[in-house]
Amino acid sequence: MKIGVFICHCGENISSTVDCPRVADVCRTYTGVEYSVDYKYMCSDPGQNLIKDAIHKYNLDAIVVGSCSPHMHERTFRNAAVSAGINPFMVEIANLREHCSWVHDNIEAATRKAIELMRMAIEKVKRDKPLTKIKVPITKRVLVIGGGIAGIQAALDTANAGYEVVLVEKEPSIGGHMSQLSETFPTLDCSQCILTPRMVEVHQHPKIKLMTYSEVERVEGFIGNFKVTIKKKARHINEDKCSGCGMCITKCPIKKKAYNSFEEDLAFRPAVYVPFPQAIPNIPVIDETVCTYYKTGKCGMCVKVCDREAIDFGQKDTIHVADVGAIIVATGFKLYNIDKKSADSKYKGYGEYGYGKYRDVIDGLQFERIASASGPTSGEIKRPSDGRVPKKIAFIQCVGSRDDSKGISYCSKICCMYTAKQAMLYRHKVHDGEAYIFYMDIRAGGKMYEEFVRRAIEEDKVKYIRGRVSRIYEEDGKYIVKGEDTLAGMPVEIDADMVVLATAMIPQDGAESLARTIGIPYDKYGFFNEAHPKLRPVESTTAGVFLAGACQSPKDIPESVSMASAAASKAIILFANDTLEREPVVAKVNEDICAGCFYCMKVCPFGAVEVKDVKDINGIVYKEVAYINQGVCQGCGTCTATCLSKSIELAGFNNEEIFAEIAAL
Amino acid sequence: MSRKADEIMAADTLKDAKKLQASFISTEPFQESSKEKEKEKDNNKLFHIHERNVSDEISERTFQDVSLCYQCGKCSAGCPVRYYMDIAPNKVVRFIQLGYYEEALKSETPWLCAGCLACSVRCPKEFDLAKFMDAVREIAIEKGVEIKQENILKFHKAFLDQIKNHGRSYEVGLVAEYKMKTLDLFQDVDSAPGMFLKGKLDLLPHNIKNRKEIKSIFKKTSGKK
Amino acid sequence: MKYGYFPGCSLTSSAKEYDISLRKVIDKLGISFDEINDWSCCGATSAHVTNHKLSTALAMRNIMLAEQQGLDNIIAPCAACYNRLIISQNEIGKHTGIRKETEDLLSVKFKKDVKVFNILELFLKSGLNKIIENRKRELSELKAACYYGCLLVRPAAITKFDDAEEPESMEKIVEATGADTVDWNYKTECCGAAHSIARRDIVVDLSKKIIDDAITHGANVMVVACPMCHTNLDMRQRAMKRKYPDHKEFPVLYLTELIGLSLGMDEKELGIDLHYTNFKYADTLLNNSAKG
User: Fold this and answer.
1) What is the DSSP letter of C1?
2) A474 vs C163: CB contact, 8 Å cut-off?
3) Is there a contact between A252 and A270 (Cβ–Cβ < 8 Å)?
């Protein structure tokens, strides 16, 4: 084998601490090395040409480049090698920059280390084998999980590109949090007015299959070839028959047993309901937990009034399977609850704000419902406790957010803006009312955002007080808000009639279990992790699974929409090909020596290991061995390290190659 | 990289590294200082900001870094004695963070702190402000700063004197000593006789047996840090 | 279970009635105590605000004595002592430097983990049923504002027995005596105890606010578990009256006194006559309810 060695100076990045010509000289003496040279910028065009020319001139079989991290330029050098006729996997990179020159200052020692690193790479390349990329077919259909604004946008974009979409939403209607909002910052346009046309479009789109009141149960397969199992919960209403007339809802005798979660528990709903009038689909759901029929077997009022015989008490959950090539996860967020007994047990409650015992201390979404024309007060600002109009209102930002002691260190990002908007709406609706906002910092980065906050202060005379609130007490129907104006250096007490808490955005319920179902990583809060924080922000680390909206981190509407469109285009880019090329760095099982212990299956983070039956000549199964699905395997090497019988090899990093590298040291 | 940096990196522990770092940094601003500056130093003996870093000192004593505090003011907002203080508690932290040690150590605020821990339990950064205040007072005493709330300090001294002498608090002795120290003879005239009449105050102290041990604890801990 | 007893200085003087009533009550409930021999002051506020080493050493001397006496669990009825003891224990547990320093000062090696309980934990642990079963007097006319003060539940990360903002354990005990409790705001607000002598003006203001809030929320008696709090809320009412002429006397009882009353003991026996506030008010209340 003829090996070429190329040592890059990286300007002065490497050559200031590594004697590059000497490294090249030493390498030239190693067996198998046919040609060795150093150059100022190996990644530059002349540098690449140097490589290509050497390959032709010396008839090289493999090359080793001593340069920066393979993260930076492995692809560059492989492409150069390919264009000169060498298999791309016959290229090794020794990292002389991050691993050597940048972290040392002694030239002699660093040069010696560089030589060692080169020798290791040379020993490895001698054992490298040419590998070919793997081809996988693609099912050109997308699964979108979550029917909020991000999911809606992603579904519409993909469908408009001509691909089929399965949109799964766990609630009875799509629309998500955006459908609950009153008006949106910084333009103050009505949230529902801009959202509902999109919802209708989804409903009517021939390429979108909408599955509401449904949840994803299982995801198998790999990029281009996922098999998804979806549970459609029983509505107890026959969707084909129901016309959405709403008679069942009007006549249902259960009036005050169940809180209306769309109204953030500020109102009640009957046992049979649609979440809100513009719901898509406009088909009700019967809540078994409060419906009299399910308790006593009697009532059936809805059956009597439904002239289309759509009520079906016996309806059961159904299971559906869909084949898709890509998945867009858009499960969104929910608000942190200050109640210590709440389901958010991961986080501590806010005892200093009363753990939710004060009825007029509400959260941001509750205020949205109160301010919404379609809300429980028809848009009039009234206190939940007694319906009085609050003359003094206090908003508190960063409740939960940026609070290590409650378990949430991050900034929820949207609260500064929506609090300014809410205070503004309050001042527009209650002209003689006073609005105070307790804040720590105003984070108004965004188009027209800062201007919007200034407008709240300058035009609507909202009073901003810089300081966190320590305690809220109830006294004679007022809420004493104890704060400190840290700018004036003075204690402040506001006797507010109502308090609105901008509570933190946290991942939607079940986000972590969904992540485990799909096989995507999430952070300590339960937000899904992107593949790269800067360069791959809408991809998960699992190929073919993309992220959109607040399930990845707190986001406002425009950001969620952009991310959704980006995720959709990632799926569309994937579908531009009929087959998929994958890096051949995958694990392979030697079936002859596999003992069938399946430890590899337990440790594989991607679910790539399957059970394979090995048959004799007569077709009788005589043993079970591990089989690694090449489409799913990401080449992490966990199985190879775990395998007790040493029967798994990772292509490009097999035992022989690695041991040779170590032995060379 | 410089030799200093190498040495710092080679240090066994973070603490050692910090000490080394301090030793390299602290001397530099004064190497070229003029005579005038030296004079200024003498005039203001207590506060040589670069010479002795109070904020590091506090971090060391309280096991928490003052940079944790992001100045939200929640501590001040909930402080029961806030209205009596000259500056807000969060400002004391701010002064220490910025190196305005004199302003912080001379403030009345640490002395008025009642140690109720409301700030510490509510702090979003889990910064124990009450502990921080303990350290500020301790350092103020060690540096001989003029304490504006002198009666409070006199009370604490009188209280500790009783313990030093008897092993337990002796209220008659405490009140007598406190009154001698403050010459505030008439405060509390309404409660003390009542206490005697109700038999609550014993005229004689409750001496513990091993007063020697208590005295030795006081002696060993009285040295300046 | 046998407990070690660390009364603390106040319970031997200004809070004698706390000690008296505590001993009476636990005797009746069949709990026994073993007083720590030759215990000394925990260092109180004065030590920890001026000298950290001294404060830890003074507190830990008592833990050392308990250990030497073979006691695994000790009761510190004074909230301030309780707080100093557990905080010092926590410090030496967390920081080896402080541990070594303290061990050197006391020439001892701490081996066991002596557990320090406050008065609320004592009654909760020994079982509220015992109180309910032995109830002799009807107290339902009493509407108690349970006052925890600052040091009983803070810092919750170390005290680990009740919520720092909305504690409920004292209410449970008070309700076991048959008295009613009220929900009020200042359960854990500080009375300024540390400044009782040097800055009486502050203490009077703070205590006044606490009493007023209890009254506003319908309480007719306050129940406390800390001698400092009691001194401020009870003894300082005269000064309160001078500063706020419309102030009306409000009875303040130790938790143990309330339990004693429910167990049928009389006021003298429990030392309630040692209070400063005129207790006639509650007295009549009790008599009335006894008759009714």
Assistant:
1) -
2) no
3) yes
Question: Are residues B61 and B138 both part of a single domain?
Answer: yes
The three-state secondary structure class of A211 is strand
The residue among A152, A142, A62 whose CA lies nearest residue A549 is A152
Our CA-based measurement puts residue C246 at a distance from the nearest CA of chain A, in whole angstroms, of: 20
Interfacial C residues in 147-166 facing B (CB < 8 Å): 149-151, 154-157, 164-165
The CATH number of the domain holding residue B71 is 1.10.1060
Strands (E), chain C: 2-5, 32-35, 73-75, 115-117, 143-147, 180-181, 221-224, 252-254
Residue A444 pairs in a beta bridge with none
A597-626 burial, b if ≥16 CB within 10 A, otherwise e? ebebbeebebbbbeebeeeeeeeeeeeebb
Structure tokens at C235: 């003894």
pLDDT on residue B8: 46
B150 touches chain A (CB under 8 A): no
Find the chain A residues whose C-beta atoms sit closer than 8 A to any C-beta of B: 105, 352, 398, 402-406, 440, 466-471, 482-486, 489-492
Element (H, E) at A217: strand A214-222
- In chain A, the percentage of residues whose pLDDT exceeds 70 is 99
Q: How many CB atoms lie within 10 A of CB B98?
A: 12
What is the reported pLDDT for B7? Answer: 54
Q: Is the pLDDT of residue C46 over 60?
A: yes
B178 shares contact with chain C (CB less than 8 Å): yes
Domain encompassing residue B209 = 150-222
Identify whether the C-beta of residue A234 lies closer than 8 Å to the C-beta of residue A552: no
Task: Give the pair of three-digit tokens for residue C107.
Answer: 């020439």
Report whether A390 contacts A383 (CB < 8 A). Answer: yes
Q: How far apart are CA C32 and CA C15, in angstroms?
A: 21
How far does A351 lie from chain C, in Å, by closest CA?
5
Chain A hits for C213, CB-CB cut-off 8 Å, are 475
Class of C2-119 in CATH: mainly alpha
Residue A417, token pair as written in the block: 């803006």
Q: What residue of B is the nearest CA neighbor of A493?
A: B77
Class of domain C136-291: alpha beta
Q: Which strand ranges, in their side-by-side order, compose the sheet holding A318-324?
A: A214-222, A225-232, A318-324
Give the gap in angstroms from C-alpha C217 to the nearest C-alpha of chain A.
9
Stated as kind and residue range, the H or E segment containing C94 is helix C79-94
The Cα–Cα gap between A90 and A417 comes to 54
Instruction: Please name which of B157, B206, B213, B212 lies closest in space to residue C61, comparing C-alpha atoms.
Output: B213
C-alpha to C-alpha distance for C281 and C287, rounded to whole angstroms: 10
User: Does B1 sit within 8 Å of A491, measured CB to CB?
Assistant: no
Which residues are CB-contacts of C23 (< 8 A; sequence separation ≥ 6)?
C33
Q: Report the number of distinct structural domains present in chain B.
A: 2
**pLDDT digits 0-9 by tens, C80-92:** 999 999 999 999 9
Whether the per-residue pLDDT at C282 is higher than 70: the answer is no
Report the number of secondary-structure helices (H) and strands (E) in chain C: 15, 8
Angstrom distance (rounded) from CA C224 to CA C170: 9
Domains of chain A from N-terminus onward? 3-127 (3.40.50), 141-233+317-330+521-575 (3.50.50.60), 247-305 (no CATH), 333-506 (3.50.50.60), 583-664 (3.30.70.20)
- List the single residue in A351, A474, A476 with the smallest CB-CB distance to C166: A351
Distance, in angstroms, between C160 CA and closest chain A CA?
A: 14
Please state the rounded mean pLDDT for residues A121-135. Answer: 93
**Which of B71, B79, B118 comes nearest A486 by C-beta?**
B71
Count of other CB atoms within 10 angstroms of residue C54: 23
